[in-house]
Every structure is written in structure tokens, then in C-alpha cells.
Design brief:
The chain contains 23 helices and 34 strands.
């Protein structure tokens, strides 16, 4: 153990068999499966899957956390392989469930009045089954079992935690109720934030309130290596929506069982009145409301057309402005860890500090996120490009001044802000910029933007090796513009630029930080110290406009241009024996399950698995510039070319999906891409786990099944694989113990992890490595969430409830196949390429090649934030 780094307890616990509890599992016959196969398939794009719809209806009628597994994709392991199951924490009543099935089936579109499932329902063999008997161990001692068993293993943990409120100190505590997603929620004790102001027109006092609930998600999985079962606790803030914009789900308290909060999807219908979009109706998706009414139990509470007051139906806030910030804060996590240990009677898992050091490039050598003049020619040479020209499109002069002021500051060109439109400014050899004021391009509305762009000489590419990029002003469409159906200029421009192989970035004036000499937390601390010492106030330094900096740096990255900051981190002198000591090809393999967006009333489009891959040739030496390629229909091509070609086509290839034949197509596609890379150098693959795609990347079968590069390894090629995770099931640090880094003066406040070293644990039988450290905001002084919880804020800090509570970032690495490298080299490289970004001064969640592959997907014109088919009990399948 590295005493310098100390140890790191996390919000994860090893589960003994006696904490798993039991469930009631009701296997159905093959006759039931046959009848199910004859049900009509959903035709509307917004329809729920039949299993989700039936699960929701049954939960609403019974008040249970039950669910129904998909007969079309049944579990192949466990006591009832191949059979669909009803799973519940307690016994199900035959009469009630028969009625649910009959009423639900009779509501199916095109199947009205039919009753084929209820007569086949079998609840005879559903007695309590210990989960310890459902989850078995294979010949290697690894825990295996059907996916549903891991999902319901968290039910018992949630039930135990719900028996006692979470103590916060000073007599304060948070009581919780269970929810149908397997977690806990503070339904009866919400957070409240209020603000008031005098309306300038009426002179009246106006008040508004925001509400939120603490929520704890419980996820259970085998630990890395599969030798132990692990429960992960994930606290979060569930903010209650104040209006229906973008709302897809609600929490509701149903009279059938007021101790379990039901989560339900909703459909919001809008209309236009007096030129404004207003809510016409809000309905529960699926047949739940009708089934409840037909079954003769209490009706589901009606979803109001206006939100604001807390009631039995609470919209789950997504993206709009809110009076309560995001994030639970480090202090709440530490309190939850102590509470869970007391209730469960087990101590949390602890990661030990290791000697693997995480170094970053020097801020003195790289003072800005973008590539500066002394390094730009080499960046062009490495990417085999001759020049880069950026066209700046804008409407408001203020936006133009803001952009040019920051770029001029980074490139030491103070007079750049005075540049006239259509005047080419040379920022460095090979890098130029021109501004164009064309409101009809950047303002929302229906226009022939392609015709305008094609008429501009600035977008003509005479040199095939030159790269063009566009930086554009934009704004969020107003409610009135949305109501009138006015097209979003940003979306239209992205599609046009993609067709013309032009990377683009968009900046709103909403991100304008304002006064460049504004005081930040560091300034306030420095002033306070100076005054206490009787010294004059220190000079306030000019602040950067980060949005502009990152936009230009991202454009360079999208064009395939990078300086040597990645090599500087990967080959830093402090890395010791874990440094990058020979040339390798680094590959990021990114996948995303995507449900294409469909117009309301249109036919549902089939889901696809989007696959993007980016490769970098990494040569040792801190002065090296690493070229970047991306894979597509034309093989491995320069990043800008392949990225633009990808953005011109569909976001995912037809036939790439998570069904059996689609899985084989995706695997073959990835293996073919890896084979096309040069065999001259070893390959290191960074990839995220994708359930159902690569069994060899799952915790319980690491390295034993298929994974990216496995066929190349079988043929004797030197390929290494590092799995990267940063989602909800990554262990969450709760505070460092020991170590030499500074700790808070208050011993009750959690100490931040060491960001200089990796931590590791073998709790599952396989080495799990954790990169943890202060978030960028926490380093900058935003530490309210470490000092307090939102409920224990002192009066003078009550306004902080609106702020995000930043704390610890974390990413987990597992070296599944080391190839010719040591495990420490692989995870050290992965961590350094997460800690050191290619285009900004903070961390990325993923190593740079994988981050760039993800970014290519996220910037696709067909991408939208709601298209990831996220798992929940309503989407449960094997």
C-alpha cells in the first residue's frame, strides 16, 4: 500500500448470503410464451414495450415492486431457463393478477377485448426462493445467474435502509420510502428552495419555490472477477419539475400502497393558445390507468396540467433551470456510508493507494486548451494537414467581441478584437480566422442556409489538405419559437456542415461569464488573507472565457489536431516504470444503444447499436505529436475526414443491434477494424462494457468470452484491453483515510482522494483500479457540498442550495488482457489519458481515444439526449 495516497473507502459493500433475502418467482409455461408471441406489436413511436406496459399496470394495481421478464428474451441461466417470470418481493394473488392480465390485454391496440393470457397464468410454483440459491457459482467460483436476480438482490438492501432514517447530525435526519426502481426516496421530507422579487411591471411581490427529493439507488453486481457480490449505493438529488417541458416520467404516490412510490412514464400533449405553448393533457403511458380503473382499485392520481405545488404526482426534472442544484455532495456520501454500515452490519469496501503515479502536462508549457503558435506547425505536420481556417459566424456584435477578445488573449493578439468582418487574421503559421456577420444563418427560422453557405468563398476548400471549421453564435429557442414550430438554426447548420466536412461549434451568450475581472473563490480567499494580515488587497487577474477557449480547442481536436500534451503526460518523468516506453496504437471502441428519434405519430424506428472507433499512434517521448484516425466505411481515415463522413450518414448502421444476429455483426465490424491496423505495433484497446455484446468484459467472466480484439489475440497478435467504467456502478469514494495530502480542519468533513496516485482493490478477485480526485469546481473552491449537506446549510449559506454540489470524480479501470504490457503500465496509461485532456484543462471521464470516439457519436446530427435505452425495471430483459 502507498502510504502517501492513504486508503479510500467507497459506497460499496460485499454482500453475504444472509443479506440477499428471498423473492417470489412465478415461472410461466411455454403455452403462455406462445400466446404472448401472438400479441400485436406496438406501432406508435412513443408506445411502451409490452413487458414494460404490463409491469407498470401490475405495479399500479398491486402496489408491489414486481416486474415481468420478457418472453421474447428469457433468461438462459438460473432455475427456470427459457421461461418468462413474474418476480415480486412477496406472494401474488391469483385473482388480482388474473384480472390485471385480462384487463391489460383487452386494452391493446388491435387486440381489444381479447383474453388469451389470463387463462394461462400459473402462480402455483412461486413460493419464496432464497436468492442465494438462484445465484450459483461456476467451476471457477464465480457468481453467475440470470440478470433479474442481480437486479432484485438490491431490494433487500433497500428495505433494510428504509427501516431507519439517515442521520445528518444535530438531530436532523432523512426518512425514506421505497420506490419501484429498487431505490429509496425522501417523499415525505423534500428539499425546498424559495425566492421572491418585485415584478417591475405590476409592482407586486412574486414568489416561486423549487422542490427536490434525496434518492438512493441500490445496484448489485458481481465484483470484478466475479468471486463476490457487491452492492453499490448511489445517492442523488431528484429534482421535482416545475413545468412539463421535456418531462417523460413522474413519481406518484398511489393509495394502493402509500409505502412504495411508483415511477411511471407519461405522455404530454401540447396546444397553442394566444401564441403560447400550453399543456393540453398529461396521460400515463401504457394501459396502467385504464387497468387500475377496470380492476376496481383506487384510480391513479390524475397528473395535473400545471406543476409547481407538491402533490401525489411529481414530474422528474430533466434539463430546465431549477432552484435546487445537482449532486448530493461529498458529506452526504460519507454520512450514507456510515449509516449503511450500521444498518447492514458490514463495513464498506476500501481501496488502497498504489505506487502508480498519475502525471499531467505542465500548465506552464500548455497555458491554454487550444494549440498555441509555437506548437501549431508540428500539430499540422503530425495530422498531415497544410492549414486550418476557422470561419466565425455571428449576429450580435457583443458575441463577436467576446469571442475575439478571448482568442486574442490566448494568441497574444490584443488588437484581434478590432478586426473587421471578411478580414483574415493569422493567429499563427497555418492558423487563420475570419468573422462574418450573417444573421440569416445563425438566427432560428426556415431559410435555405445551404445556398447561403455555398455562395461564400470562405467555405471553399482549394487545398485538399487544408481543414475548415466553423464557430457559430446560437441561442436556445424560446417557448414562442417552439410553439410556432420555428426550425432550430443550430440543428440545420450542423447537418449542412457535416455534409461539407466542416467541424462546427456553437456558443450562446448565456455562457458569457461577464466581467473578465470578476472575483472567483481564489480571489476572495486571497483578499481575506491579505486583510487579516493587514496587507492591501491583491490585484485581481483577468479571467478567461472558458466557453470560447473550449470551443476553439474542440474544433482543433475535431480536425484531428493535437499538440504534445498527451505525450507529455503519458511519458512524464515521474511515471517511473509504468511510463509509455514503446510505440503503440491506442484504440477507443465506443458503443451506444440508440433509439432513433421519431416524429409524434410516426412509426417506431428499430433501435441500433452505434459503433465509433478512434485510433492514435502513440510514440514515447514528451515532445511527440500523436496523429489520430477514425474508422468508417472507407477504413481508417484522418479524424476530420472520417468523422464528417460518419456525420453525413445514419448514427448507427442497419443491422447493428443487440439481437443475436446484430451482436455478431457488431463484433465482426470491430474485429475487422482492428485487423486493418498495422501489425507493426502493439494495440491497446480502451472500451466500455456493453451488456449483451461482449461477455468477456462482464465482471463475472472477465477475459473468458468475446471482447474487442479477442480474435486477433487468438491469432497471436499483441493486443491489450482495458475496460473503462465511470457510471453508477463505479464505487464512489466517501473520503480518504491517511495519506500525506492536506485534510479539512473539521475532522467530520471527508478528505479528498489523492489525485496523484491510483487506488486499487481485489474485492471481486480481479484487480480494480480507481482514478479518483477533486472535481475541477471543488479545486476552485466550490466546497459547500463537502462542508454541509443541503439540509444542514447554515442561514448565511442557504442560497447555496441552488448550486451544484461538486466533490469527487471517479473512473474505474480493469486490465482484462495485458498483452505484452504490465497491468500497471496499462491502467497508468489509461488514467493519464483521462486525467490529461487533449483539448481542455480538466479531466475527461474516458481516456482520450475513447473520449474522441464518444464525442464523434455525441456530435452526430441525429444524436439526441433521450435516445439511450437506459435500463430500468420497466426495460428489464436478458
Amino acid at each position: 500500500m502507498n502510504l502517501t495516497a492513504g486508503t479510500l473507502p467507497v459506497l460499496s459493500f460485499l454482500l453475504p448470503d444472509d443479506l440477499l433475502g428471498s423473492v417470489n418467482a412465478y415461472p410461466q409455461t411455454t403455452h403462455f410464451t406462445t400466446a404472448w408471441s401472438h400479441l400485436p406489436k406496438p406501432r406508435r413511436a412513443d408506445a411502451l414495450r409490452p413487458t414494460a406496459s404490463l409491469t407498470l399496470a401490475a405495479r399500479a394495481v398491486t402496489g408491489n415492486r414486481l416486474f415481468f421478464t420478457d418472453p421474447d428474451r428469457p433468461a438462459r441461466t438460473g432455475p427456470w431457463p427459457g421461461l418468462p417470470l413474474f418476480i415480486a418481493p412477496g406472494a401474488l394473488e391469483l385473482e388480482k393478477m388474473t384480472t390485471v392480465l385480462r384487463m391489460w390485454e383487452s386494452q391493446l391496440e388491435g387486440h381489444e377485448g381479447r383474453n388469451t393470457l389470463a387463462p394461462l397464468l400459473d402462480l402455483s410454483a412461486g413460493g419464496p426462493v432464497p436468492l442465494s440459491e438462484v445465484l450459483q457459482r461456476d467451476e471457477h467460483g464465480r457468481i453467475i445467474g440470470p440478470h433479474w436476480a442481480f437486479r432484485v438482490a438490491g431490494w433487500r438492501i433497500a428495505e433494510m435502509l428504509a427501516t431507519a432514517p439517515l442521520p445528518l447530525g444535530n438531530g436532523q435526519e432523512i426518512p425514506f420510502l421505497l420506490d419501484t426502481e429498487g431505490g429509496l426516496i425522501s417523499w415525505h421530507d423534500p428539499l425546498i428552495a424559495e425566492e421572491e422579487w418585485i415584478d417591475k411591471k405590476s409592482g407586486q411581490l412574486v414568489k416561486r419555490a423549487g422542490h427536490a427529493m434525496d434518492r438512493i439507488q441500490v445496484d448489485v453486481e458481481p465484483g470484478p472477477g466475479g468471486l463476490a457480490l457487491v452492492a453499490h449505493l448511489s445517492p442523488r438529488i431528484s429534482r421535482v419539475a416545475t413545468n412539463w417541458k421535456g418531462i417523460r416520467n413522474v413519481y406518484l404516490n398511489h393509495a394502493v400502497n402509500t409505502e412504495v412510490i411508483l415511477k411511471a412514464p407519461v405522455k404530454v400533449q401540447w396546444t397553442v393558445e394566444d401564441g403560447k405553448r400550453v399543456v393540453k393533457s398529461v396521460e400515463y403511458k401504457g394501459a396502467a390507468a385504464k387497468v387500475v380503473e377496470k380492476c376496481g382499485v383506487s384510480r391513479l392520481p390524475e397528473a395535473p396540467t400545471a406543476l409547481g405545488e407538491l402533490g401525489p404526482v411529481r414530474g422528474i426534472h430533466r434539463t430546465q433551470e431549477h432552484l435546487i442544484g445537482t449532486g448530493p455532495g461529498a458529506r452526504l456520501k460519507a454520512l450514507l456510508a456510515q449509516h449503511a454500515a450500521n444498518v447492514l452490519g458490514i463495513e464498506p469496501i476500501t481501496y488502497d493507494g498504489t505506487p502508480v503515479r498519475i502525471s499531467a502536462a505542465s500548465p506552464k508549457e500548455f497555458p491554454a486548451p487550444c494549440i498555441l503558435p509555437d506548437k501549431f506547425p508540428q500539430a499540422l505536420q503530425a495530422a498531415k494537414k497544410s492549414s486550418m481556417a476557422t470561419v466565425v459566424l455571428y449576429s450580435s456584435p457583443e458575441w463577436k467581441s467576446r469571442v475575439l477578445r478571448q482568442i486574442g488573449r490566448d494568441y497574444d493578439l490584443p488588437k484581434l478584437v478590432e478586426s473587421e468582418d471578411e478580414q483574415i487574421s493569422h493567429l499563427s503559421p497555418g492558423l487563420s480566422l475570419v468573422t462574418l456577420r450573417i444573421p440569416e444563418l445563425v438566427l432560428h427560422g426556415q431559410r435555405d442556409r445551404a445556398k447561403i453557405i455555398n455562395s461564400l468563398p470562405w467555405f471553399r476548400r482549394d487545398d485538399p489538405d487544408a481543414v475548415l471549421a466553423a464557430m457559430c453564435e446560437t441561442s436556445w429557442p424560446t417557448d414562442e419559437e417552439k410553439a410556432r414550430g420555428i426550425p432550430d438554426a443550430k440543428k440545420a447548420l450542423k447537418e449542412i456542415f457535416a455534409l461539407q466536412r466542416i467541424p462546427s461549434q456553437f456558443i450562446t451568450m448565456d455562457s458569457d461569464p461577464g466581467d473578465p475581472f470578476r472575483r472567483n473563490m481564489a480571489d476572495r480567499v486571497a483578499i481575506s488573507r491579505a486583510r487579516k494580515a493587514g496587507l492591501p488587497d491583491p490585484e485581481i487577474k483577468e479571467k478567461d472565457d472558458n466557453a470560447v477557449q473550449f470551443a476553439l480547442a474542440s474544433l482543433m481536436s475535431d480536425c484531428g489536431l493535437s499538440d504534445n500534451r498527451l505525450a507529455s503526460a503519458a511519458c512524464h518523468k515521474n511515471n517511473g516504470p509504468t511510463t509509455l516506453d514503446r510505440t503503440a496504437v491506442l484504440v477507443g471502441v465506443f458503443t451506444r444503444h440508440t433509439v432513433p428519434q421519431t416524429p409524434v405519430g410516426g412509426r417506431r424506428k428499430p433501435a441500433v447499436l452505434a459503433v465509433t472507433m478512434v485510433a492514435m499512434l502513440a510514440t514515447p517521448g514528451t515532445d511527440q505529436f500523436w496523429p489520430t484516425l477514425m474508422y468508417g466505411d472507407n477504413g481508417w481515415r484522418p479524424l476530420d475526414e472520417a468523422r464528417a463522413a460518419y456525420h453525413r450518414g445514419p448514427i448507427g448502421k442497419p443491422g447493428h443491434n443487440l439481437r443475436e444476429d446484430g451482436i455478431h455483426r457488431v463484433r465482426d465490424y470491430v474485429e475487422t477494424a482492428l485487423r486493418k491496423l498495422s501489425s507493426k505495433y502493439p494495440i491497446i484497446v480502451f472500451a466500455e462494457q456493453r451488456k449483451g455484446l461482449w461477455s468477456g468484459m462482464s465482471n463475472e467472466s472477465l477475459g473468458s468470452g468475446a471482447f474487442p480484439g479477442s480474435s486477433l489475440i487468438a491469432d497471436g497478435n499483441d493486443v491489450a484491453l482495458v475496460r473503462v467504467r465511470n457510471g453508477e456502478t463505479v464505487p464512489q469514494p466517501t473520503g480518504r483515510i491517511g495519506g500525506t495530502a492536506r485534510k479539512p480542519a473539521d475532522p467530520t468533513q471527508p478528505a479528498m482522494p489523492s489525485s496523484t496516485y491510483l487506488y486499487s482493490s481485489r474485492h471481486g478477485g480481479w484487480q480494480s483500479w480507481l482514478l479518483a480526485g477533486e472535481s475541477r469546481q471543488h479545486k476552485g473552491g466550490q466546497r459547500t457540498g463537502t462542508q454541509f449537506t443541503r439540509r444542514t446549510l447554515p442561514p448565511e449559506k442557504k442560497s447555496a442550495i441552488e448550486q451544484p454540489f461538486h466533490g469527487v470524480t471517479k473512473t474505474e479501470y480493469v486490465a482484462i488482457h495485458p498483452g505484452s504490457w504490465s497491468e500497471e503500465q496499462l491502467v497508468g496509461l489509461a488514467a493519464r489519458l483521462s486525467n490529461q485532456s487533449a483539448s481542455w484543462d480538466g479531466r475527461t471521464n474516458l481516456p482520450v481515444p475513447l473520449h474522441r470516439a464518444q464525442d464523434a457519436n455525441a456530435k452526430h446530427p441525429q444524436f439526441f439526449t433521450g435516445d439511450e435505452d437506459k435500463e430500468s425495471d420497466l426495460m428489464l430483459s436478458e
